[in-house]
Amino acid sequence: MSKAPAFLCLPYTRGQAALTEPLNAAIIAVMAAEQKPVNILGIETSCDETAAAVVADGRQIRSSVVASQNKLHEKYGGVVPEIASRAHIENIYPVITEAMAQAGIGKDDLDAIAVASQPGLTIALVVGITAAKTLSFMWGKPLIAINHLHAHLQSAMLSEERLELPAVALIVSGGHTSLYEANSPLDLRLLGSTMDDAAGEAFDKVATILKLPYPGGPNIERIARNGNPKAIRFPHPMLGRDSLDFSFSGVKTAVLYYCRGQDMKGENRIDSMSEQEIADIAASFQAAVTDVLVKKTKRAADKIGARTVLLGGGVAANGALREAMQRMCEKSRPPRRMLVAPKPYCTDNAVMVASLAYYKYKAGLFAPLMLEASANG
Ligand code: ADP
Ligand code: MG
């Protein structure tokens, strides 16, 4: 693999963009003519997973390593930023080394280093960014900045070369619930997002009320299999006829009231409830969240005339959500195609970062070495 010259990773200052962009384009054209795969190392540390992966040509996964911090955050029932950041510092070097080893390549085979730079916990993002900038500088590889949410969406497109457009994309994770219009991996328009709790956050908080282990989503799903989704009518907040935004804090509070009484003076009754009653609460909560997610996605898809629905993020691993979204797509006239991220790539990973970076690489969209973390999307 040809070695990218060092000038590619110079910061874009004082008009250097004008100088480097044609040169970048020339290098990309030469590589395309040589038909060499474009190998990108992706790095992800936006929340509570330290991840690195090597992906060739945006699709061929050569390695994927994820160091999950679930055990560290379990006793707090949610992610503690300071703990997350410290764990990233400990994990980042071994995770990147392992990803390179699993891929069976050396630094000379890499064409770029990509990193999730926004949105997320700033003190977590900064660990991945620092590692990526250091490698970019030391190895003379271009740096690519990736939006973590756009990358989640990319995992839904991993298996698909051609999409019928426009597509509507729902990203449901621990920190975000967002609807996009997608016209290409790099052309995304935000249609709506959560006004309070994200869907995953609501799953995690309800799991804490039900005294289920963290992360809550998979445990609620497991318990809900034995429950009746119609047993309790929790709110299904639609926020008005045209809204494409979300609000899940009311559903979470309704579960809390159900367990402790309307005046909140009572003890959490969970310890005295039967397994069936807890399963009914889990199933009814899951049904409320799922119903809103699917209805809003349909609303957005109708509005923009979407032919395809993309589903990504940690909550996209939820079987009830996947099935309900699939049914909605099949019932639509004409039917819509649903593409969902493979389960291992629903929660945070670096494959999605390296995969999306391929399109930025082809477009010559490189980042300066003074790249900084941003908490917002
Ligand atoms: P973040 O970027 O915020 O860490 P992730 O994309 O890693 O989010 O997803 C983590 C979230 O996904 C957690 O809130 C977790 O509870 C939720 N989650 C994971 N699996 C499931 C599931 N099967 N059902 C519902 N939620 C799930
Ligand atoms: Mg996570």
In short:
With 377 residues, this protein is of the alpha/beta class. It has helices spanning 16-34, 70-73, 81-103, 122-139, 148-156, 199-209, 216-224, 249-260, 275-304, 319-331, 351-362; strands spanning 39-44, 49-56, 60-68, 112-118, 143-147, 167-172, 177-184, 187-193, 308-312, 337-340.
Question: Can you describe what's shown?
Answer:
It is a single chain. The protein is of the alpha/beta class and 377 residues long. The chain has two domains: 164 residues, ATPase, nucleotide binding domain (Nucleotidyltransferase, domain 5, 2-Layer Sandwich); 178 residues, 2-Layer Sandwich (Nucleotidyltransferase, domain 5). Helices cover 42% and strands 17% of the residues. It contains eleven helices and ten strands. The strands form two sheets. A five-stranded mixed beta sheet has the order 3-2-1-4-5, sandwiched between helices. It has a five-stranded mixed beta sheet with strand order 8-7-6-9-10, sandwiched between helices. α3 runs parallel beside α4, α6 crosses α7 and α7 crosses α9. The longest helix is centred in the last third of the chain and has 30 residues. The chain is globular and about 65 Å long. The N terminus is likely disordered.
